[in-house]
Amino acid sequence: MAKRCAISRRNKTPGMDQGTILLVDMDGFFSSIEVVRHPELAGLPVVVGADPKGGAGRGVVSTCSYEAREYGIHSGMPISRAYRLCPDARFLPVDMALYQAVSGRIMKILASYADTFQRVSIDEAFIRVKTDDPEDAIETAQDIKKEILAKERLTCSIGMGPNKLVAKIASDVRKPDGLTVVAPDEVYEFLDPMPAKKIPGIGKKTGQVLKSMGIETIRDLRECDARKLVLRFGKWGYRMHDLACGIDRSEVKEDHTVKSIGRELTFEEDTSDPGLIYDSIDALADATHRALSNAGYLFRTVSVKVRFEDFDTRTRSRSIGFPSSDPELVKNISKNLISEFTGVAKIRLIGIRLSNLRMADNGSSGATHRCHASRAGITRQTSIYEFIL
Ligand SMILES: [Mg+2]
Questions:
Q1: Helix axes 327-338, 274-295, angle to 10 degrees
Q2: Domains of the chain, first to last
Q3: Which of the four pLDDT bands, split at 50, 70 and 90, describes residue 255?
């Protein structure tokens, strides 16, 4: 195992009585899964995302392999730019159903090692292991890596520390296939030299303000008078200072509540054609509703998002008085909300989001309950439908 993963561990530290926190982050998750499915792509630049269409494609890169990263390609980059950087890369569409299935199996493996477990995203989870002995925790991390590699042929990077903040930052130190261990008495030594923006929540803007205050590293931030930070940033100043000191009291806790479900699409060309816009709303409403019912939720709020050709982005929402699962209601409310924006300027992107969610049933017989909920929605919808239009 030592050969496969680089371990950075300076000394043993007893007394991790809070338990030890691990952040497990899969390496290049979507592209790695594609390489497992198409082994002939191993070692090649692989880009998962929108269709590049010979450089004219309009979406973005979802994930890419480490080989593609060497060309400067990264997640969130416009696909057209990724194509220009490496036209010979293998460009593959996003197969979310497959990635979710793999994620489900990996999360099960992770949860089996955890005292408490918190899924952060499709390819990331916190694990708390109850042990005073860092050697035990390291063994757990190595077992997790072995099991995921054996069962899914995928690698992950793991950060280990006394709290979530340290584990999260440590997970990013060595990728792919890394294991970075930070003992409680090594936290300053570990965090101090890093740029302040490594702290979650410190983005470009905050980073610039800090820089103007002479703060560039986490050490600068830690040594700064917390009152100074509070004057500048309010409550967040306290929190920022705590984090710079390696203090993070947030617990590893599974969050079961899905806050919202949404889908969006970018038009091939910016458009002001109402026919195309309304047809796309229908398709988006269907897709969003499908995701909602697959997840077993009812909604109360429908939001639409519009991005114009100049990237000006607007949203509008409307709530109904009861939880519903009715797809027609999603369509009608969305069309009504978007009507404000048609004929104004050319539109680049539209999206629908359903929020204020509630579980459709208590899990006894999902299909029957959902069907029933749907009927209830349609019955009640008549009056709402008339009300809206
Ligand atoms: Mg990842």
A1: 140
A2: 29-96 (3.40.1170.60), 192-244 (1.10.150.20), 260-388 (3.30.1490.100)
A3: low
